[in-house]
Amino acid sequence: MKIKIAIVILAVLASAFFLVRNSGKVPSGTPHEKALYVIENNACLSCHDFNAKKPFYAKLPIAGALVEQDILYATRSIDLSQVVKNLKEGKSVGEVDLSKIAYSAEFGTMPPLQYSLFHWKSHLNKEERNAILDWVKIERQKLSQNSGVAKEFENEPVRPLNPAPKTNPAKVALGKELYNDTRLSKDNTVSCATCHNLSLGGVDRLRYSKGVDGKLGGVNAPTVFNSTFHHRQFWDGRAANLEEQAGGPPTNPVEMASDSWDEICKKLDADQQFKERFLKVYPEGITQKTVCDAIAEFERTLVTPNAPFDKYLKGDKSAMTKEQIEGYELFKKAKCATCHAGHNLGGLTFEHMGLLKDYFADRGEVNDNDNGLYNFQKDDKNMGRFKTPTLRNVALTYPYFHDGTVKTLEEAASHMLKYQSGVSLSKDDIKKIVSFLEALTGEFDGKPLK
């Protein structure tokens, strides 16, 4: 008898849950307004907001632990407070946020079941999902304008690489010279190109780069190619732009180890021929600011278009193999394109290393270089968050991750599935994703990178 009553109660609850979750009506309005309504009306900010007010039952022992866990995962995945703010102000939303929201709407991953059971109206019904997806589609069409993307690919989370920004040719020439100049280092042995070798995909292919006197850095050197498209520079985002980034290594004691920029400028100033060329471009003379400006101007030209994937997105179906195309579809389904979004497939946001599983506990030997964005912003919520690297030319930029611990793309893809996506794929599927990643190798100066 008790079992029958329990079954009836569960049936009633299930019916009520189904009716409530499918009863939401999205009011008329612009795509922005509809998307805002769905996000707010479905209580998405109850978890996806660092300042969200916790429900009353969060004080209960077991329920409280679940609430804390849900909010921690939710805010690490995406903080929707800025999205809502932008929607209210009629502003665009970042491509990574767009991709994360679109993925959740398309695959019904949010909110999690345990949350929906107690908050029936939080689950998106078909009309609400379509409202979100229609808004995302319109935003992506705006982003794809003038990109050359074929119409059928306008709603993709990624798009063809943007052209290099306009630069000053005279500054670029001077910057290229300085990029390869070892006089920026203490003992005249290390240049920017030492760790960011353009013939090696813009890296040195070492776990940690070697500086003056063979000293080793603490993080893996990221590629300099397409770095002009990054939101900020360095793994921990401590540099706002390429100029700031260029100013760091020359006086870093374990990299180029110069005592000061005055020391560097005096060495350069003593070279009369160089000084004359420099003054023609920068009448104010050789200073930290002008040297870094020239190097940054050169680095803005280090853009690698025309990867097979770019050609494919522009309509050339023969540019990629069948395996690579299948790999791209798996790449999207496995949530990879939620963070590696946009034309640079990364470089736009800072994400937690180990979203679903503790990467650092498994790896061991944790140190300050594993703090990520926290080292720059000193905010606890940014502990272990790193800039999502670009995946362009990724087949050439091994070893991988900020710690340089992974040597192959197969290993890197497997790690990301385990620690970030929570998606289980076969070895054959992982091989297909790797094949797709190999299609992201572009050209520089009209020649394919190798």
From TrEMBL:
**Compartment list:** Cell envelope
SMART domains, per the entry? Haem_bd (SM01235)
Domain Cytochrome c spans what residues? 322-441
What GO annotations for molecular function exist for this entry? peroxidase activity
Q: Which PROSITE patterns match?
A: CYTC
Matching InterPro entries: Cyt_c-like_dom (IPR009056), Cyt_c-like_dom_sf (IPR036909), Cytochrome_c_Peroxidase/MauG (IPR051395), Di-haem_cyt_c_peroxidsae (IPR004852), Haem-bd (IPR025992)
Q: Name one Pfam family in it.
A: CCP_MauG
Q: What is its main location?
A: other
Q: Where is this region: Disordered?
A: 148-169
UniProt keywords, alphabetically: Heme, Iron, Metal-binding, Oxidoreductase, Peroxidase
Tell me the domain of life: Bacteria
Q: Write down what this protein is called.
A: Cytochrome-c peroxidase
Highest lineage ranks of the organism? Bacteria, Pseudomonadati, Verrucomicrobiota, Opitutia, Opitutales
